[in-house]
Design a protein that fits this description.
GMP Synthetase, Chain A, domain 3; Rossmann fold; globular; single chain; 21% strand; five-stranded parallel β-sheet; 661 residues
C-alpha cells in the first residue's frame, strides 16, 4: 500500500495549497529536473520545472495585459500538448478558472460547455479547433479572446481577437518587466477553497454538468492517492487521454505537481502506442477500452503469426494463467512452474510487454467502467501490476484503490485515506471525502439532489464484500429486473461480451421485459482480419457485420457468455436470449456514445426502438434507416435489414446443484 517514506518527500499541501504554489515549489526545489516531455517531429523534447514556471508566469502576465480578470473562465481545447497543460496553471496563477473541453467534439457540442461556463478566453491547439471557435463566436457572447498554439494554417487569419501563443508570452515578458513580482503576488492571493477547475461530466442522460472543484478537493484527493501508492519523483507518465477528462487532470497534472514526476505528451493520437513503447512509463492509466483494444491487437498478431510462434504463445500463456498472478503477488509456486514462467518471460511475456510499452510499469490503473475479469487477469498474468480504482468527476477521482497483495478482478479496492463509504437502502453507493465537489455550476437543483449534507450520491449500485472491498454492479438507474424478478445488470453482461476481441461494443436490454437481449458491434479490424484469413470477401463494415459466418462466430460467443452467467446465482436468469449485430458502429458523433465512450442508453433506446421491438418478438429480421454523421460534419442515412438470432441458454448451475441435493 502506501510508502510513508515517499509521502514524507511530498510538499506540505496545507502550505502549498494551490497548484501554482506547488509549481513554484517545484521550480525552486526541482529546478533542473524534467517536468514535461513532448515528442515533436520524431524527437523528444524536455522542459524542466524552472522552464515551466518561467513560461507559465510569462503567459499569465500576457493574459493580464490582454485584460484577463480574476474569476474569468478560460476554455482549453486540443490534444495533449504541454502548452495546454501549462494553461491550466496559467489560469490558476491569476485567479482565473480553466475549463477543459473535449477536443473531438464537433462545434455544436463545444457550444454548451463554453456557453454555460461563460468562457471569456479560449486556448485552441490548432486550426481545427480555431475554426470551431470562429464558427461559434457569434453565438458565444462572452467569448472575447482566442489564442492558438499551432500557427500552421492560422497565420493569415485576420481577427483582432485571435492571438498567437508566442506573441502573448512575449507580451507577458514585457508586462513582468514593467510590473516585477506581479505573478507571484497573484499566486499568493490564491487559497485552498478557491475553484481550481470546472470539468464537465460526460452527459449520458442529458446536457453535461459543470463540476466546481476547489484546490482542496483536487489536491487532497490526488495527494491521498499518491501516498496510497508511494508515487515517486522519478516516475513517468504518458499523457494521452483527453484533457477534459478528470482522470487525466488527476494523473497528468495534480499528482505530477505533488510528486514532481515527469509527464510526457505523444506526438499525436496516431503515434500513442509507438510513443508508449519508446517512453516506457512507470505509472500508467488506461480505461478498459484501451486494454481491450490492445488485447485485440495482440490476438490478431498471434493469429497472423507462424504455427511455431502461435503454439509457443498459447503454451506459455497457459502457464501464465496458471501461476503468473501468484508470482506477481509473491505467493508460493512450485520450482517447476517458476522455471516455466521464467522461460515464458524470456520467450513471450517480456517481448510482448516491450512491444506494448509496458515493460517498466510499476503501477497501472484501469477505471471508468468495469473491466472484464479475464482481460484484467491477462495483463496481471504477464507480470504487469494492473489494478482497479473507483472515482468520478465529483469525487476528484480517488475513492477506492486496490492495495498490492489484495487484488480481486471483481472489486475496485478499499477506500483511500479520508474516504468514507456507505450503501443506501436502495443499494446506491454514497461517499464522503475531502475530494467531494463544491457544487454543480449554475445548477442548485442538481447539487441538492446529488449531495446529502457531506455525502455524495454516486448513482452507482454496489456493495462491500467480506474483506471491505467495494464491488460496483452498474449504474443504479440502469440496474433493473426482468419480469420474473431476476436481477438485470446490463453493464455486467456487456463487459462479458466485450471480453471477446471480435466484439467492440454491446448494449443489453431486459429491464421490465421477459428476457435479456442485446445489440452487438463487431470490431472491424479484428473481424476483418478473421474474415480475410478465411478468404471471406466483404466491402464495408455493414457487409462484414451481416455475414452469416460472422453471425455464427458471435452466436458461439454469446453462448459462452450465457454459460458463464449460468454459474453466477444473482444473474443466471438474465442470460441473453436474442441478439443482433448492428449495421454501424455506435459513435459519439451520432450521439450514441459520450465523448468518454460511455453508452447513452436512453438515446439508443429511442433511436433504435424498431430493432428493440424486433428482439422482443418472433421476427428473424428487422429493417432500419439510420442517420449518420460523416467526419466533415455532413449528415447521411444508411439502410439495412438486420438478422435477429436466438442464443443458446443454459440451466442455472445453482438450480441444478439444488436439484441434485
Amino acid at each position: 500500500m502506501a510508502d510513508a517514506r515517499s509521502a514524507s518527500a511530498y510538499p506540505d499541501i496545507s502550505v502549498y495549497d494551490t497548484f501554482p504554489k506547488l509549481l513554484r515549489y517545484n521550480a525552486q526545489n526541482r529546478a533542473d529536473k524534467p517536468a514535461m516531455r513532448e515528442k515533436n517531429l520524431g524527437i523528444w523534447q524536455s522542459f524542466t520545472w524552472a522552464e515551466v514556471k518561467a513560461e507559465v508566469d510569462n503567459m499569465a502576465a500576457g493574459l493580464l495585459a490582454l485584460g484577463l480578470k480574476r474569476g474569468d473562465r478560460i476554455a482549453i481545447i486540443g490534444d495533449n500538448r504541454p502548452r495546454l497543460y501549462w494553461m491550466i496553471a496559467v489560469a490558476q496563477s491569476v485567479g482565473a478558472v480553466p475549463v477543459p473541453v473535449y477536443q473531438d467534439s464537433v462545434a455544436d457540442e463545444m457550444k454548451y460547455p463554453m456557453e454555460h461556463a461563460e468562457a471569456r478566453f479560449a486556448l485552441a491547439e490548432d486550426q481545427e479547433q480555431v475554426d470551431k471557435l470562429l464558427y461559434l463566436k457569434d453565438s458565444l457572447p462572452t467569448l472575447e479572446q482566442i489564442i492558438f498554439d499551432e500557427p500552421r494554417g492560422v497565420r493569415d487569419y485576420s481577427f483582432d481577437y485571435l492571438h498567437d501563443y508566442e506573441d502573448i508570452v512575449a507580451k507577458g515578458a514585457e508586462y513582468q518587466k514593467a510590473n516585477p513580482g506581479i505573478i507571484d503576488a497573484e499566486i499568493d492571493k490564491g487559497s485552498a477553497d478557491d475553484i481550481c477547475i470546472i470539468p464537465y461530466t460526460s452527459g449520458t442522460t442529458g446536457n453535461p454538468k459543470g463540476v466546481l472543484l476547489t484546490f482542496r478537493n483536487l489536491l487532497t484527493a490526488a495527494y491521498n492517492g499518491a501516498t496510497f501508492e508511494g508515487l515517486r519523483e522519478d516516475d513517468q507518465v504518458l499523457a494521452y487521454l483527453p484533457l477534459a477528462w478528470i482522470g487525466d487532470t488527476a494523473f497528468s497534472y495534480a499528482q505530477a505537481y505533488i510528486c514532481g514526476f515527469c509527464v510526457a505528451c505523444p506526438e499525436n493520437s496516431d503515434t500513442v502506442l509507438t510513443d508508449l513503447r519508446e517512453l516506457g512509463p512507470t505509472y500508467f492509466f488506461a480505461p478498459p477500452r484501451i486494454f481491450e483494444n490492445i488485447l485485440t491487437q495482440v490476438s490478431i498478431r498471434i493469429e497472423d503469426a507462424g504455427k511455431l510462434k502461435r503454439d509457443m504463445f498459447h503454451y506459455f500463456m497457459k502457464v501464465a494463467r496458471r501461476v503468473g498472478i501468484k508470482i506477481l503477488e509473491g505467493q508460493p509456486v512450485s520450482a517447476g512452474d517458476r522455471l516455466q514462467y521464467w522461460l515464458g518471460n524470456i520467450m513471450v511475456y517480456g517481448p510482448l510487454k516491450n512491444v506494448l510499452g509496458l515493460s517498466r510499469v510499476r503501477i497501472g490503473y484501469t477505471a471508468g467502467e468495469a473491466i472484464g475479469p479475464d482481460i484484467f487477469d491477462f495483463y496481471r498474468s504477464l507480470g504487469i501490476n494492473l489494478k482497479q480504482l473507483y472515482g468520478s468527476t465529483e469525487t476528484s477521482v480517488f475513492v477506492t484503490i486496490q492495495p498490492d497483495g489484495q487484488i480481486k478482478p471483481d472489486t475496485v479496492g478499499v477506500p483511500v485515506d479520508g474516504v468514507d463509504i456507505k450503501i443506501a437502502d436502495s443499494g446506491e453507493l454514497m461517499i464522503k471525502s475531502p475530494g467531494i465537489f463544491k457544487e454543480y455550476f449554475k445548477n442548485p437543483e442538481a447539487t441538492e439532489e446529488a449531495k446529502d449534507g457531506d455525502w455524495f450520491h454516486t448513482g452507482d449500485a454496489g456493495f462491500l464484500d467480506e474483506d471491505g472491498h467495494l464491488k460496483i454492479i452498474d449504474r443504479a438507474k440502469d440496474v433493473g429486473k426482468l419480469n420474473d424478478d431476476t436481477l438485470f445488470a446490463p453493464k455486467y453482461i456487456e463487459n462479458k461480451l466485450k471480453f471477446f476481441p471480435e466484439i467492440r461494443e454491446a448494449v443489453a436490454f431486459g429491464n421490465r421485459r421477459d428476457y435479456c437481449a442485446a445489440f452487438i458491434n463487431i470490431d472491424h479490424e479484428a473481424v476483418g482480419n478473421w474474415a480475410e484469413r478465411r478468404g471471406i470477401a466483404y466491402a464495408s463494415y455493414q457487409e462484414l457485420a451481416a455475414l452469416p459466418q460472422v453471425y455464427d462466430m458471435i452466436q458461439d460467443q454469446v453462448a459462452q457468455v450465457n454459460r458463464d452467467l449460468a454459474g453466477e446465482e444473482r444473474v443466471a436468469g438474465s442470460q441473453i436470449r436474442r441478439f443482433l449485430i448492428l449495421h454501424k458502429m455506435l459513435d459519439a458523433d451520432d450521439g450514441e456514445l459520450t465523448r468518454t465512450s460511455k453508452v447513452r442508453r436512453r438515446f439508443i433506446g429511442d433511436k433504435y426502438g424498431v430493432l428493440i421491438d424486433g428482439l422482443y418478438s418472433d421476427a428473424t429480421q428487422a429493417a432500419i434507416e439510420t442517420e449518420i454523421t460523416f467526419e466533415d460534419g455532413r449528415k447521411g442515412t444508411v439502410k439495412a435489414d438486420l438478422e435477429i438470432r436466438n442464443a443458446e441458454t443454459v440451466a442455472p448451475k445453482h438450480k441444478m446443484s439444488q436439484a441434485a441435493e
